[in-house]
Amino acid sequence: MTETNPKTALHAICGAYLLVAYSDGQFAPVEEGRLTSELAADEAFTRFDQAALTAEMAELMQVFPEDYEATALDVLVSIASVKAQDVEKRAVMHAARVAIIADQAISPQEEHALDRIALALGLEKGAL
């Protein structure tokens, strides 16, 4: 099994979170803070460089609002490329779930985003 490029893994993890968070068109400030605190505290993310995760988040937060669908497709390609790597796959799944609980509500658009991530990971719809 080959290792995933670290930049691709970071793109997939942060992108999964933001794909869900931006899907309903309402990115709440609490959503931004939630992932930042999760990145610092949760063992799912300890393998990854925290400064690089933060930088990737900031970069993606600039492009998602400009063109959600194009950025989402780019992120889904990165997600699909990490599906064979257990650590990265778990981190992507966790990041996507954190986005849902960040604002304590789930919209149909967020459910759709979760399904897109699940399919990119080789899982069935509804698996996240």
Summarize, please.
70% of the residues lie in helices and 0% in strands. By secondary structure, it is mostly helical. It has a single domain (6-120), classed as TerB-like.
List keywords for this structure.
globular; single chain; 128 residues
Overall geometric form: globular
Order of helices and strands: HHHHHH
Domain count: 1
Percent range for β-strand residues: under 5%
Mean of residue pLDDT values:
87
CATH topology: TerB-like
Cα-based radius of gyration, to the nearest Å: 13 Å
Gap between N and C termini, in Å?
Answer: 25 Å
Residue stretches low in confidence (pLDDT < 50, at least 5 long) are: none
* CATH architecture annotation: Orthogonal Bundle
Describe the structure.
The structure is a single chain. The chain is mainly alpha-helical. It has one domain: TerB-like (Orthogonal Bundle). It has six helices and no strands. It has helices spanning 6-23, 29-41, 50-63, 68-82, 86-102, 108-120. The protein is globular. The model has no long low-confidence stretch (mean pLDDT 87).
Topology overview:
Layout: H1 6-23, H2 29-41, H3 50-63, H4 68-82, H5 86-102, H6 108-120
